[in-house]
Amino acid sequence: MDKKGLSKWKRKELGLSCMLNTEVGAVLAVLRRPPDATSHYLNLPEETVDAGILGSLRSLRALIFNPQQEWRTIDPSIYVSPFLDVIQSDDIPATATGVAISAILKIINLGIFDAKTPGAKDAMHAIVMGITSCRLEKTDSVSEDAVMMRILQVLTGIMKHPASILLTDHNVCTVVNTCFQVIQQSASRGDLLQRSATYTMHELIQAIFSRLPDFEIKNGEDQEAESDSEDADVGDHLDSGYGIRSAIDIFHFLCSLLNVVDVVESEGSTYHTADDDVQLFALVLINSAIELSGDAIGRHPKLLRMIQDDLFHHLIHYGSRSRPLVLSMICSTVLNIYHFLRRSIRPQLEAFFTFVSFRVAALGAPSQLQEMALEGMINFCRQPTFVVEVYVNYDCDPTCRNVFEEIGKLICRHSFPGGGPLTALQIQAFEGLMVVIHHIADNIDKENDSRPTGPFAVQVTEYRPIWEEKSTENLEVWIEHIRFRKAQKKKLLVAENHFNRDDKKGLEYLKLSQLVSDPPDPKAYAFFYRYTPGLDKTTLGEYFGDPGDFPVAVLKDFTDTFEFGGMNLDTALRTYLETFRLPGESQKIQRILEAFSERFYQQQSSGVFSSRDAVLVFCYSLIMLNTDLHNPQVKKKMTEDEFIRNNRQINDGKDLPREYLSELFNSISTKAISLSGQTGPLEMNPGRWLELMNKSKIMKPFIISDFDRRLGRDMFACIAGPTVAALCAFFEHADEDEMLNECIEGLISVARIAQYGLEDTLDELLASFCKFTTLLNPYASPEETMFAFSNDLKPKMATLAVFTVANNFGESIRGGWRNIVDCLLKLKKLKLLPQSVIEFENTHAMSDDPAHMRTESGIIFPNEDTFNKRSNFSSASTNSNSSAEENAKAAGNYIASLFAKLGESLRKTSLARREELRNQAIASLHRSFALAGELEFTSTSIINCFNLVIFAMVDDLHEKMLEYSRRDNAEREMRGMEGTLKLAMELLTDVYMQYLKQLSESPAFRTFWLGVLRRMDTCMKADLGEFGKTILQDIIPGLLQKMIMKMKETDILVPKEDDDLWEITYVQIQWIAPSLKDDLFPELASL
Asked: Considering the entire predicted model, what is its pTM?
């Protein structure tokens, strides 16, 4: 080591020695301080302090400036233990404890030792045990809070220290437990301590779970080790210290917090309610753990089972009855789990949508909860592959719900306007509908996509077992398979309708539709009865009790679809009898219970029953108990002792466990077993959850799927009817230009989808939009139509949309041509058509002109370029006797007018909700102004364009940005609007510099320039509230500098005696961007 390096090393070592000396001196000073009657602290004379503590501190002080080696190589226990002795002592005043804790914190933060330091592991263990068992003398609350704040800082420092990898699982759990104890104690203390403790808990969870992807998996862990002993040592074999065991315990603790309830007494009764604050706290930490761990959780069976079972059970249980903020966090948690672990949560995700999202978003729930549930579903739909994956995994599986179809129809139903103005919920739902439509359209209508487009419709032409699934290895075979299963599922719903009207005709329909085999397979009938919702339960019960060989075989296969593992007998019996109505005839009841008993005996996990007969006898006993306890005609109710006595020696001559009998008696006395099947909405009861967990063990994983045109077509076909109705109704009731533009975009997207075999949908949509043009009203006079067409934006937009679709998707239109031709005839009658459409003799000459497009009907429609090039079709022709100068002037004004209209259209588009559409509109404006340089606009025309287009656009975008900043949960929309406003300000600057010469020649230039500066000032001082600083403050000074430098270079901004432009600009710059003053006006800086 050279002299320079040696000197640097010595300075560092000396600095550490000085730091330790200072801390030891501070502790000794506090211990020696005499008692002060006016002080808040109780100090003891030095004689009363433990001599061992004082001795260790003095010994350390003697060693500090005479170390035999580098501090990094010295056992940390030597200089840590004296401070820990002070912290753990009962006789030390609180001030000394606080100073000692501060010393430990400084040692940790300065990194005197690391993981390679000898004795580091023991030192870290000692620090954890010392800090977490700190003995704090009772003083005043302020002092106690200060010490507890320091403890929290040390806990964070421990987990972030390089040597934290040497901590044991027990150490880590102790740290987290101590932090949570501080959170609990801080509830009755100051808000600052509680916030600090909560923040510390977040830091600890982040530190622990950020290491989860690096935890090794012990051999055999992936074999679903069930015992705690097998999991207890996972991680102990690692040299890196704590491992998966601590992560499991902490995650289990966080999940248990979701089930914390408060006991509430009201009007003499007591009930339990969830603690929202605790649930929010737990959900934030769980979200953080999942986000940091990612898919690494799936590699650890115990953590994965905890998410599948405990976490999802709590989320589903409380999701449908929580408050808006908690529900929002629950939806975010499930979305995060979907991102990383969706292959392992197929039944859980279906259950979440069934029992939470659909139920809360249903009409009749509180509007705030509806908005949260709807927003949660829309967030799912925004994910790139969610809609196709949920369709493939659920809608195409006959044993699952049509999740995608229900999401689509629910969004359509909520977006359907009522009688009054559009509500926030309706607008939110409509935006969600547009997300789904655009997503399908963008994926189904990709350019250069060589994948097959057909066949569009799938027919069930042969029998295939509905329970069979195929691998995705052969993509074409798999797509054909799931489309076939979806067709079968549709047929099953039709069969359900036939069955409920006449069961024999329903079964005959199954044969005709080839949904069952010939000869008949009992399993096919069993699956129809099990997984077809809405079948008449009484008819099912009678069929299952039939003594025939085939019904008995069907009953056995039906019963085999149930998974009773882990259930008590009463829970299993409830689950079984929910699916049909138990018949009244005793022999039929016996056949059904025999089938149930055999299945339950095979799957019982407790081993309570010795035989199937014992299960059968006890089932009869439970049904009798249920009747006795819950039949109002029975006056003398059976007691628990009588029930236990009645069931003696039924288990092959032995008694069933008394506690087991008591548990079942209490369960049935609390809630009756329904013998008439499930009535009312489904509830996530314990039996249904256990069945779901059993199903998840045998169910194939969630299928990860990419988009396919055929699937996209089938998906949209499921929701096409409600989508068309909602789109038309929303367009009819919407008033804002932004909403109307979104409806038009939706129409175009539907047209893009409809070209793949959904022509009827496009015809239906065009028929409605043709009505919105007001051109098809047979009772309106030409004057009324012209007035409506001239003063209402909606008919114009509808007309433009209809002909845009006709031009681009004409091959997909069938019956819709009649409405389009009727609109053309009405336009001709009103003399609103271009001459090229009316003069048919010239159509052959124009057919080769790329500015025109011929459809299959022979009609020639002007395309977009034609409308841009041609004059106003309803205006009179120019007087041929006008002078050349007048013609040139009129043409110039006319061109400027057309350009202004183009700019206004793009300005309106720049306010659309979709950020990419807004930005594209501004980019188009940029190009338009750049190309318009050849048109030789006058200064007046340019100022008019600024006022009508650029200034108006900047003002509207600024207002929109501020509006979003005042909304809750709208940061993403606000930042998107902020980005668009940035582009608009850049456009303003570029156009200003492009036309600076013409603008400066205008008499109104001074006023115009002040308008530019005012908008710069407004953007610089935009207040975004809680969202903080705006990016505009970083770019506005640069834009302003460019403009002013250009003005100075062209001698437009120079001091003049008869012009105050220079002085006004200088004053304004001091208000807008004072930092530019000296650079832009150096001649005034020295004054």
From this structure: 0.73
